[in-house]
Amino acid sequence: MKRELLKRILTSLLLIPVVFFFILKGSFFFVFFLSVLFLISSIEWIKMNKKIELKFFGILFLFLSFYSSYFLFENSLINFLFILIICISTDVGGYIFGNLLKGPKLTKISPNKTYSGMLGSLLLSIISGYLFILNFDHSFIKYQNNDLYNLLLIILILIISTVSQIGDLIISFYKRKSKIKNTGNIFPGHG
Predict the structure, then answer these.
(1) Taking phi first (over 0 means left), then psi (-120 to 50 degrees means alpha), and beta for anything else, what does residue 39 get?
(2) What one-character-per-residue DSSP string does 39-72 give?
(3) pTM of the predicted model as reported, rounded to 2 decimal places
(4) CB atoms within 10 A of CB 121
(5) Are 181 and 175 in contact, with CB atoms under 8 Å apart?
């Protein structure tokens, strides 16, 4: 586990500045970045799946995902970053809490996923999402003491985190069907 964790950390330390460079540079750079990621993801998906209908479904899913990212980025950088932070926190929370606390397995689809990891994902995403809104969404200040707004914000974060976890389980399902451990080897520790 220590070796896998070290790979994840080193890869993340290299990727995070690159990702934020393209996000902060703006439209053209971000579109170029998304296009490269779409091509890499598509190649990995095609190599992973043997059945033509799975290849088609995967490419369509990837296209819609990347287009949604572009659409969200173009319409609201704050909302794009908010969702990105929640998804990253979901993944990190699941990994850390799942490995530290262990516990009962969540599903046979992905045997390394545990209930403690799922709850850790939700907890870290709430903390990160709330801190992000508190520090970067200046319109939040007028709603900060509104209990209903805070409740709706937490529900929104939980929905985004849950969808992120479901997406992770879907990819795990397809990896199992394809009898592979990782969807790709381009980013060490992030298969």
Answers:
(1) alpha
(2) HHHHHHHHHH--SHHHHHHHHHHHHHHHHHHHHH
(3) 0.85
(4) 28
(5) yes
User: What are the beta bridge partners of residue 164?
Assistant: none
Nearest to 90 by CA among 131, 130, 121: 121
SS3 at position 104: coil
Residue 113 corresponds to which amino acid? K
**Which tokens sit at 165?**
């976890």
State how far the Cα of 10 lies from the Cα of 115, in Å rounded to an integer. 27
Residue of 69 and 5 predicted with greater confidence: 69
Give the pLDDT confidence of 128-143 residue by residue, as tens digits.
999 999 888 767 666 6
Of 96, 143, 152, 100, residue with least CA distance to 124? 96
